[in-house]
Amino acid sequence: MPKSSNPSANHAMGTVAMRWHESSLELLDQRLLPAEEHWITLEGASGVAQCIRDMVVRGAPAIGISAAYGVALAARHAGGGDWQAEIKQAIRELAASRPTAVNLFWALQIMEKEFHGCHSLDEAVKRLSAMAVRIHEDDLAANLAMADRALEFMAPDKPFSVLTHCNTGALATGGYGTALGVIRRLHEENLLKRVYADETRPWLQGSRLTAWELAREGVPVTLNADGAAAAILARGEVKWVVVGADRITANGDVANKIGTYSLAVLARHHKVGFMVVAPSSTVDMALASGQDIPIEERDGSEVRQIKGVPVAPEGVRVFNPVFDVTPASLIDAIVTEKGVVHNPNITGMRALFG
Ligand SMILES: CSC[C@@H](O)[C@@H](O)C(=O)COP(=O)(O)O
């Protein structure tokens, strides 16, 4: 069988968030899961930007990869006039889609650099597509490497349970997962007793996506309301809380899905390990600390309603930051494909990321 240009298709895991076809990109509409598996076909960067904004595709690495494909589509479908202006405009539009996950800006920077090296539209079409595929493939490889490193670091001698937050699996990445990749690997090695998945209010990435991904692969998953996490950790069965990241700053602070910070506080109180798993594309050494990270706030309707059904008084004032910052001091390990930063601080981060 010829090698597909869709990197996810070349991996054994069944779950994929996107399919690349050179002149179009298909995204699995994550807003409709688990009720419906519906794919959206896109032929331009504006559509991809819209899908990132509306969370058809979400998760830091997956956002970066789809944006890269968006730039490739802009070249492929350039109108024939000023193709360079069209590609630049596409990059600007994609960059404005969501603010917190640095993977988006990281991927766009790579695509922009590649674009600047192109002397014709023909060359841009080929090179930008190849680079987007490479970004996708590299992310998948990084996920697999992080799973190796995390297991080496945890050094388990018998099966144990973990708790996770949000969705960090194949749907959020190039195809295996960051935190969920580690959990998959534990399961593959018969070292996972059970994974507790926070439902992750308000968007419910945990119940709609993580529980779906894991259940269809036969990974033992128990879904819990976010507020149950303390009671679960108090029972002593969970050895590690394992989460992903949207941006990690030079001092080791981590922005991740809202509720991650509370989990880190809980983990420290219960003497449970707290591990962050993220590719180096999530590291932003240009920002000194988590205070500098732009935190996205989304519409209050995401809290007031579930699937359009009111769960709060109409028009009630809502505060809906969708990420929070966990201080480095509450984190036991940051696992990347380049290595593990144990008890992260600026020295450990610089040693690995310069
Ligand atoms: C591998 S995904 C890591 C993070 O991106 C994930 O935990 C998260 O916060 C996703 O947020 P989302 O708002 O769903 O894009």
Cα-based radius of gyration, to the nearest Å: 20 Å
Look at the structure and name the CATH superfamily of the largest domain: Translation initiation factor eif-2b, domain 2
Strand adjacency order, main sheet = 6-5-4-7-10-15-16
Binned strand content: 15-25%
Question: Could you say what the CATH topology of the largest domain is called?
Answer: Rossmann fold
The structure class reads alpha/beta
Helix content range: 25-40%
Low-confidence stretches: none
Spatial separation of the terminal alpha carbons: 42 Å
Number of helices: 11
Folded structure, characterized:
The structure is a single chain. The protein has 354 residues and is α/β, with parallel strands linked by helices. The chain has two domains: 7-141, translation initiation factor eif-2b, domain 1 (Four Helix Bundle (Hemerythrin (Met), subunit A)), CATH 1.20.120; 145-353, Translation initiation factor eif-2b, domain 2 (Rossmann fold). The protein contains eleven helices and 16 strands. The strands form four sheets. A seven-stranded mixed sheet has the order 6-5-4-7-10-15-16, with helices on both faces. Helix 2 (60-76) packs antiparallel against helix 5 (121-154) and helix 3 packs antiparallel against helix 4 (102-116). The longest helix is centred in the middle third of the chain and has 34 residues, at 121-154. The mean pLDDT is 95. Bound molecules: 5-S-methyl-1-O-phosphono-5-thio-D-ribulose (MRU).
